[in-house]
Structures are given as structure tokens and as C-alpha cells.
Amino acid sequence: MMHHPQAFHFLDQAGLTKPLLQLQTDPSLFVASAANHLLARLLTFKQPATTSHTTQGNGLTVPPNTEEEELAVTMATSPGSGRSVTMEILKHLESSLESDSHTQVLQGLRLLALTLPELEAPLWGSVIRRVLRPLEGLVLEGRGGGVTQPLMDVLLATYRSGPCDSRLVSLMASMLNSQNPSDAALCAAATLRLKTCPPDLRQKAVAVLLGPLQMVTGITLLDRPNDRHADQQIDHRHADQQIDHRHTDQQIDHRHADQQIDHRHTDQQTDQQMDHRQTDEDNRQTDTDQDRQTEGRSSLSLLLDHLNQKPSCISLLCLCVSSTPYITDMESSASVILAVVSLLRICNGHSPSTESKAPIGCSKASTNLIGCSKVQRCGLDSLASLNTCSGAVELVVEVFHVLLQYLQNPDSDPTVLQKTYQAMLRWLSVSAEPSSLADLVNEDLLPVLRKRVCDVRWEVRDSTLEFLGQLCACEALACTVTPILLGALCDQESYVRASAISALARTLPLPLSGLQGEAGNHTQEEAVSQLLDILSQDSEGFARRAVVQFFISWLKTHPSSSSSSSSSSLRSVLSLGSTDLDWEVKVHTLELVDDLMEETLPGHQETELWLVELGVVTALLNGLFDCDRPVALKACSLLLRLRDMVCPRSLGKGAMTTDDATATVAKVTFDLRGQVWEREVTRKLQEKRGSDWVRESREVGCDRLNGNRVSDGTDGAGSEACDRVTGESVCEGSVTVCEVLWSLGLEERRSVLSQSSDHVQNSPLSLLQDILNATHTSHAEEVIVDCY
């Protein structure tokens, strides 16, 4: 409704803004979310026009301009102009951010994050000036502990939608200085994802994220171990020194004044005073240094306590490791890779690297990480992304070693193994020498993969076969991988069989086996025979779909006319796939037909005859009369394309042509007998031909039709099929392709099939009728639930 101005005025005049604001804190998350989106739409629906952006120069530090002041006056004095709705929402938003209720603060932040990216000047500046003070209160007063993520979303939305502002950057820096390491890391991760981030803020965010990783692994990632607090310590030291110098100067001035007024002070007393002052200054400096050291130790101890607790340790390290791909532009990117590798070793139960200098107190944190699949998955994802950073080539051996450890570990989780395979593929591309890569795979990797293919967990077998299929892209490995894939075709799990077939399809640009000559051909024929058996006998649709997709890939790499065996295989696939019970198998079969038409129609000498031999026409008609609408629609489109390419329009008018150019088309026939759609096609032909059916059949003759007919896979080729129509003997079993294509009314069928059932009942009017009828029925609750 809010796409129409009338709806906005209706909400304004009916005073429905207040109920919407109340629904913002509804216990139902769905209702509260919908209310927030509607309120955001109300704020951005009727924005005032402007000629210039309100935040120029230094952004929010400049006073409001004339446009903002005029907007504020209009919103306060024009209740009927729609501005009152905006003012009411802004007041509620400001009070929500200042509220002590966690729910109100949370929903207010969510509304603000939704609205800011859509606001324009001068409304953007007015909103920011209203909410900036409550936001500062949330951050500086420590009331934003439970809403760190939405609060950071608001700050980032503000940063992205307007110019850089010092107060905003100060707020983001304060968030990074949070005493809760998880909150600080959450803010740092969000800060690093900014496209344009101030260098000082980025450096601080990097220090926050690398600190826990450095503490656990012992890999030096930061120049200063307390880099997060170093800037603060330097600022405090500089301020203290300035205060001390000013205090000393004041004392010296007072001393000279006293000496001029009272000459009774001796030099000995003056020396004693200077000694006392120097002692006081030294004491103050010592106290300040001790306070700073205590602050640094307390921050480190707080981080250590956080890491020694298993839930907080896991969440913090996952966040830090997931952010490492965003900080690889620094000089120590190789150290970051080593830290991730070391963390993965710790999670796998191994000791960290020899370069580790982890604190003694982190032993409990290391214990918490052993066998933690969540940290392992995050680490493997990050490791896969780090393969392109500088220094990756020198660390290939280290990375492969830890990945092989994960593959060899019998306790590795299936999802962890899948991530390991993905990381392995990314790092295989880093190796500069293909020969060394082949040696590594054959000697170290393949023995492990052979064991994983026989794993008791089907998920592991499935992931391993997918990985083997991707390894087949390397020709040096295809000869060793293919036998493993062929053996997996008999797996008891359908998902695994489907993955084995998909992996085999990746070997098609290469020889299907490492053997040459007759042995290689025998292996290929055996593989095709197994695939056809799966297509005809497998009880699960996943494997059957994969078989048809295999032959689609095969057709793209092996011309169908290259051998009679390939034509026989394609004929079997079309016959089995077009009558399969699974609609996706039938759609994939039609995709195979589409590729066949692309390949053969443009230049084949006997195109129409060849299409009928393979069973293309029969497969298309099977799809046309299928009960699944997507199948019928695709078949109808392909039949239209086939008709326009091979059948002259004159053949659709019921007269037999004698033109040499179309004589071949007129003679091509196919057998209707035994097909589920035989009666329907015959009826359409009779309607199309009318009384010409008997006359044309007499002219052509049964013998001639039977002589030219080509069977498309049935065992009754060349046999006569006669029936009695209007008292005469005619051969209705054999008809020409073009007559059928022109008699089916394909344009009308496509128009009907293109319309889904939704166009009858799915409309706004139908929904409103259901809502109104809900109040006049005995089953009101059921209808209300349906409408909701």
C-alpha cells in the first residue's frame, strides 16, 4: 500500500502512526520487523526536495544550514502536510535510543540502520543531529553492551551515507576500545569492511583482530604486543608531561617573586625546595607509569580470561580468523598465513609451530580449541582465501602439510573435510611446477583419498568424489582418478552415486581412462553401460539426473555422429529419460534434445530422418503431453523451433507437396503405435485434415508409407498398422512429422502453459477478500493464520 501517496495520507489522517510505533516492540519478531520496515518506508516516502547536500565541509561539526532549519519548522508547524508523521517517528526514535529498555534500544537502532541509507538531504542531516547525542550516550556510557552489532550497523550506515565526520570516527574508535574483547573484535571486523577507512582507525581495528590470534598461536603479528593501548599510553604520557612542565614553571615564577619580596630566604632553603619538587615530580612520573602498566596488564589479563573460557574463546577466534583476508595488504601477510596454519594445528590436537611464543597462560585456550569444528571451518575458509596474498608460494609446503593432517585424521568432521578439500584446490593452483604438484598428489594425497572414498560416512565419500572430479582438470591425474570414480558408481547412497557420475563428466575433455586403444575403448563402453543401467534401474532421482547431465556434457565434447555406439547410447538416454517419473530428469532430457538440435539441424544432410532415428521427435511429444507444466512448456518451445526450421508452412495445410525442396520432409514419418499420446495426436490430425484424411491416405498408399517409415527405437519397424476410419482401411500408425507438428496448435499450447495457476487466484483483491471473510466464518482462526 505504501507505494501509493493515498495510503500515506490515509495513515497520516487516521492517526495510525502511533499504533505502528507500538508494534515496533511487539513480542513477535515478524511483526516487529514488519513494523520497522513500514516505519522506514514512512520516513523516506515523502522527503523534501533539496538543491545541495546538507553535510558539507566537515560534516556534522558545522551548524545546520537553512534547509534543515526550514524543514524543522515545517515538521513542527504543519500537522496535515505529512511532516508530522516524520516528526512523530523521529521523536519516538530519539526517545527509544535514550530508553533503559533493551528492546526499545534494539528496535530503534534497527530502524535507524534501515532508514539512513535511503535518506537524502536535508532530512539526513536532521535525523543525524537528533540521534547523534543518544548514540554517544550508548557508546560512552557503556549502555551499548548488548546491542553492539546493531549499534555498529548504525555507525557504518552513517559513515557510508554521508561525509566523514570527526565525531563519528571518534565513536567508532571508542567502540574499538571496548573492555569486552568480543565486542571490540565485532566492531573491528565491521570497520575493516569499509571501502574507505581512515588509516588510524584501520590500524587500530587490525590490532584488535590480530591480538587474540597472536596470543593463542604465539606468532608475532604486531610490532608492539600492546598496540591497541599504545596510542592511549602515548597520549596520556604526553599530557602528563605537559601538566608537569606547566606546574614546574608556575612554581619557579612564584619562587622568584618570593625572593624579590622576602630576602630572608637563604640559598639553602631554595635548594631544599627544588629537591622536594624534583622528588614530587619523580614520584608522580613513577605513579603514572605504574598506572599505565597496570592498565596494560589488566587489558591483557582480560583478554586472557576471555580466551580461557571456551564459548567466548571460540566466538572471538572465529571472528578474528574470518577477518584475516581483509588485512593481507599489510607487510606481515606471510605471518598471518603462518598464524592461521598454527591455529589449525592446535585445533587438530598438534602443537603449534616452532616459532610459537604463546604466553604460558594460553594453555587452557589451546585445550578449548582441540576438535572445535567451528574454528576449523573458519580457519580453512580463511586459509583458502589467503592463497593469493604475498608470501603464499613460500608457504605451500606448510599449508599442504596441515591440510593432509586434517584429511588423515579419522575424527575430522565431514563439513571440516569438505572445507579442507576446498582449501586444497585453492592452494594447488599456487604451486609453480606442475610436475611437483603431480608427485605430491600421487604420493601423498591419493592414498588418503582412496581411504576416504570408503569412509562409513556418506557425506565424506560424497565430498571426496567431488574433489576427485575437480582434480581431473589436470590431465596428469585423470588416469589415476578415473578408476576410483568408476568404482564409486556402485555406492549404496544415491547422493554418492550422483557425485561420482558428475565427477566422471569432468573427465570428458580427456580420455575416459588412462589406457589407449582397445583397452581404453572397452573401459569407456563399460562406463557407458553402467550409466545406462543406473538411468533405467536406479530408484533415486539424483543419480538418474546426473546420468542425463553426463550425456549432455558428453555431447558437447564428442560429436554424436562419430560412431554408431554413441548414437545408440543417445537413443537409449532419450527413450528412458523422456518417460522417467522424475520431472527434473525429463527436463534434463529435453536439454539434451536442445543440444542435439543445435548440433544437427544446421548442416546434417538428412536432418529430419536422423532426428526421428534417435527418437528426438518422440521425446519431444512425450514432454509435450507430460503432466508437469515445466516439462510441457519446454517441449512445446522446442517443437515450435523444430517446426519452423524443418517444416514448410505449406505442409500444414493438408495438401501433399511435390516440390523437390520439400519432398524429403514430406516423406519422413514416424510410428505412433504404443505411445501414450497416440489417441490425442490422431484426434488432432483428424480435426486438421478433416475429409482429406481418407483421400490422402489412398493416394499415398500403405506400402509407400511403410517403406519410408523409420522406427525410432521400437521393435516393430516396417510393420503395417491399419485401422478402419470412416469404413476404409488407412495406415494411421505411421504419419509424417510435419503433419503432426502443424496439427498440434503449438502456439495456443504455449500460451496456456506459460500461465501458472496463480493468475486465477493470486491477487491483492483475493487476499483482501480472505481477510474480510475471516470475520464471518466459524473457522476464523484458521483463515487468519493463512492470511498471516
TrEMBL record:
Its main location: cytoplasm. It comes from the Eukaryota. The keyword Phosphoprotein does not apply. InterPro entries: ARM-like, ARM-type_fold, BRAT1. Residues 228-297 are annotated as: Disordered. Residues 228-295 have a biased composition (Basic and acidic residues). Coiled coil: none annotated. SUPFAM superfamilies: ARM repeat (SSF48371). It is found in: Cytoplasm. GO terms for cellular component: cytoplasm; nucleus. Keywords: Cytoplasm. GO terms for biological process: cell population proliferation; DNA damage response. Belongs to the BRAT1 family. This is BRCA1-associated ATM activator 1.
